[in-house]
Amino acid sequence: MIAGYLAALMIGLTLGLIGGGGSILTVPVLVYLLAVDPVTATAYSLFIVGATSLVAVYPKYLQQEVDLLAALQFGIPSLLVVFLTRSFLLPAIPAIIFYVGDQPVTKGRFLLLLFAALMIAAAITMIPEKKAERPVAAGSTSTPFLFVLGMAEGMVSGLVGAGGGFLIIPVLVLFGRLPMKRAVGTSLLIIAIKSLVGFAGDLSHHEAINWPLLLTVTALSVAGILIGTYFARRVPAGKLKKVFGWFVLIMGLYICWREGRFIVAGDNKK
């Protein structure tokens, strides 16, 4: 439990220091350290990530690093799909997804494996050295691409309970034509709104929410992001992001190995 609370602090700290990445740890922390059911953990993750990002976006807005137009173009379709995914698609997924030989792969275990794949993809984008940012032309937002990609990202976030910042930021830079700092601030606003709306779509499917645990983890994550934001200008974010990328990669591979081993062994409790 103590390790889980310390990890919750790290989630916010990472978000504050590098502007993203911390939310990818939320589901593993809830499942492996705080003993939360995997499906329930994806719902809790949405609340934690949403509340933490909402706190983080305020100073970005004051610094004029939030593009409201791009947030609407990408965020509205993402938000709608997250809500629909959590309200209808996720509850409709059967308890047993498929079989590996004679062994069933349960819904919870499938979501963990999907999340591990997301972690590995995120790590691959974090580890390489960042190239110098190229200037982009203002006012050249590609709205159709933002709309379609917002829907795709919303489904991914809705299924695995991640904020999706590592997906949103590249889309805003490449198709929204935003500078990196403005893309990070805009991403935090999108994550905050769609995550909290996604959690609202879950309320009817989770009768016994452990509010003391959920609010404690959220409070620690918020404290972490405030500390991270304070030290952001004093820590080399590029190096930290690379180290964090390796950590996420190792965690993703570990989840694949652990859940795959349980499938082979016939342990399908999750």
Provide structural commentary.
It is built from 10 helices and 2 strands, in the order ααααββαααααα. It has 270 residues and is mainly alpha-helical. The chain has one domain. It has a two-stranded antiparallel ribbon with strand order 1-2. The two termini are 20 Å apart. Residues 135-140 have low confidence and may be disordered.
Number of strands: 2
Beta fraction: under 5%
Give a short account of the largest sheet: 2 strands, antiparallel
The secondary structure category is mainly alpha
Given as residue ranges, the uncertain stretches (5+ residues, pLDDT < 50) are 135-140
What is the helix tally?
Answer: 10
Mean pLDDT: 80
Strand order of the largest sheet: 1-2
Assign a percent range to the helix content: over 70%
- Determine the N-to-C terminus distance: 20 Å
What is the total number of structural domains? 1
- Listing every helix as H and every strand as E from the N terminus to the C terminus, the arrangement reads HHHHEEHHHHHH
Global Rg: 18 Å
Cα shape: globular
Fold topology:
Blueprint: H1 2-18, H2 26-33, H3 38-62, H4 68-92, E1 96-100, E2 103-106, H5 107-126, H6 143-160, H7 165-174, H8 180-202, H9 211-231, H10 237-265
Antiparallel strand pairs: 1-2
Helix pairs in contact: 1-2, 1-9, 2-3, 3-8, 3-9, 4-6, 4-8, 5-10, 6-7, 7-8
